[in-house]
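Design request, tokens follow.
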């Protein structure tokens, strides 16, 4: 299930986790990321304009893979799908959200950090899950420990991933991609100049190319 999306996710390598308060920042942010070769974004439902941001980013950069993150409710899921979200990410495992995504054939990455949660995911035929918050739940050591009994299961660590450790994460076969915020922090474009976003994203993608030639 969702194999083509998983293949795309692995090629992307890093998915920027986007939190925007203003829809007008969506298009220039999308352009800045694409200019760096970072062709994806996980727009989190932590702000009221998240759905509008998803639509604006897709309109600005049609080839960008834009999904929704921090999806906690069925209403948010509905809004995300209506806005054109190509994948759904949740910080936890909600069976209702997972079932609805599968029914609508929208790739979903629920967070699983324990063996029991991974078993629940496998019952839905999900073989890739988010690992969040990665730093607080033991990072790469925990991922490797979980991967031992769950052969073939892969993770997208998010939370505490940075330029300091992303190469180590991506070098692990059990990590399909990493989620991160460092290249899309609001402070980088508070003055309206998005060039620092492109700079940070380009440096991140260079790591991806080095680790996964």
């Amino acid at each position: 299930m969702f194999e083509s999306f998983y293949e795309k996710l692995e090629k992307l390598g890093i998915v920027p986790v986007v939190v925007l308060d203003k829809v007008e920042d969506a298009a220039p942010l999308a352009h800045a990321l694409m200019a760096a070769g970072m062709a994806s974004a996980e727009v989190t439902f932590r702000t009221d304009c998240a759905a509008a941001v998803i639509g604006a980013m897709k309109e600005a950069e049609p080839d960008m893979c834009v999904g929704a993150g921090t999806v906690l409710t069925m209403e948010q899921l509905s809004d995300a799908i209506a806005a054109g979200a190509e994948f759904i990410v949740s910080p936890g495992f909600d069976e209702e959200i997972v079932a609805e995504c599968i029914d609508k054939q929208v790739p979903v990455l629920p967070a699983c950090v324990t063996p029991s949660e991974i078993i629940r995911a496998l019952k839905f035929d999900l073989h890739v899950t988010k690992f969040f918050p990665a730093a607080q739940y033991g990072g790469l050591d925990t991922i490797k420990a979980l991967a031992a009994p769950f052969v073939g299961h892969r993770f997208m660590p998010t939370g505490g991933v940075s330029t300091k450790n992303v190469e180590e994460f991506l070098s692990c076969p059990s990590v399909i991609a990493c989620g991160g915020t460092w290249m899309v922090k609001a402070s980088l474009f508070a003055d309206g100049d998005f060039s620092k976003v492109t700079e940070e994203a380009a440096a991140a993608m260079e790591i991806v190319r080095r680790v996964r030639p």
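Comment from the thread starter after seeing the answer: thanks! The chain has nine helices and eight strands.
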